[in-house]
Amino acid sequence: MRVLLLVNATASSVTARKRVMIRKLLAAQHEVEVAETSRRGHATRLAHAAANDGFDVVVVLAGDGTLNEAADGLLRTDTALAPLPGGSTNVYARTLGFATDAMDATNELLRSLARGATKRIGVGRANRRPFLFNTGIGFDAAVIRRVERYGELKRHLSHPLHIAAAFEAFFRHEGTRTRIDLELDTGEVIEEARFAIVSKTDPYTFLGRLPLAIAPAAGLDQPLALTAFRTLDALTLIGGAASAMRSGRFLANRRGVDHRHDLHRILVRSGEPFAYQVDGDDAGDTEQLDIEYEPDALTVVVP
After folding, report:
1. How far apart (Å, rounded) are the C-alpha atoms in residues 142 and 138?
2. In this structure, which of 32, 73, 177, 300 has its CB flanked by the most CB atoms within 10 Å?
3. Spatial distance between the Cα atoms of 21 and 27, rounded to a whole number of angstroms
4. Which domains does the chain have, with CATH numbers?
5. Which residue, among 136, 119, 133, has the nearest Cα to 297 in the 3D structure?
6. pLDDT tens profile 87-146
7. pTM to 2 decimals?
């Protein structure tokens, strides 16, 4: 197979030694070329060029942000996407079932390629930008934006920084004043939501080794699932996070938290700009968000 190894050298767990070792492992069985991202959006262009050039697989050694960009470049092509854990959390690689260690994940990937283990899946889109696992509106986008302010420190202390940023954002009222109306393709309208997560897969993220599951109905073979918070207080957020790491009962039964699944389109509107994130990447502010499910959009390698 022709394989492009797409590397983000600045990702939190990518080292020069690891990159060389992974390339050697892949090159022992496949024809491998290496490309390195150098700026925002670069991975999209590199992946799209690889698809046009007839590569069979784009292997991404990076975090979820670069993986998201690469997926954007491979939509509606026959070139498969394969994630290797190179970031701090690696939500999508872990959700698919790859090992958390990059070398172990590479060996799993080689076995998958040998037996042709790929899957054609749908993706979400938020104002046309694809997402593989979720897009968040309001509070979690504010948390991600705050984490980005820590700069290089995020590379080494990502999970503690996310916890600290969540408390900072809450007590500084960042993202907590959001008011949005959610119009679902079922005809239902959820008014005055304070915070919402649209999931394509579950879990929502990982805290260390622990998955945070908020939308059990979401999955690779399913359309979109919605978790909408009409109440945004400390008990709901802390209790919801604790619940997501355990049985999920608190969040599932919490008054003021609405759960919907099997959705194909959600229109999000507000009278004021609100923050949103896509696959853990700050996507800026908008007053309207058109979220859609696009079926049969992408081929992924699965373990």
Report:
1. 6
2. 73
3. 10
4. 2-116 (3.40.50.10330), 129-295 (2.60.200.40)
5. 119
6. 889 999 999 999 999 999 999 999 999 999 999 999 999 999 999 999 999 988 988 888
7. 0.92
**Cβ distance 275 to 138 under 8 Å?**
yes
Three-state DSSP class for residue 176: coil
Question: Under DSSP, is residue 77 helix (H, G, I), strand (E, B) or coil?
Answer: coil
∠ CA 82-83-89 to the nearest 5 degrees? 165
Residues pairing with 283 in the sheet: none
* DSSP secondary structure string for all residues of 134-195: EEEESHHHHHHHHHHTTGGGGGT-HHHHHHHHHHHHHHTTSSTT--EEEEETTS-EEEEESE
**Residue 18: strand, helix, or coil:** helix
φ, ψ dihedrals at 28, nearest 5°: -70, -20
| Tokens encoding 25 | 């492992």
Q: Could you give the angle at which helices 158-171 and 234-244 cross, rounded to 10 degrees?
A: 160
Please state whether beta strands 180-184 and 195-199 pair in parallel, antiparallel, or not at all (unpaired).
Answer: unpaired
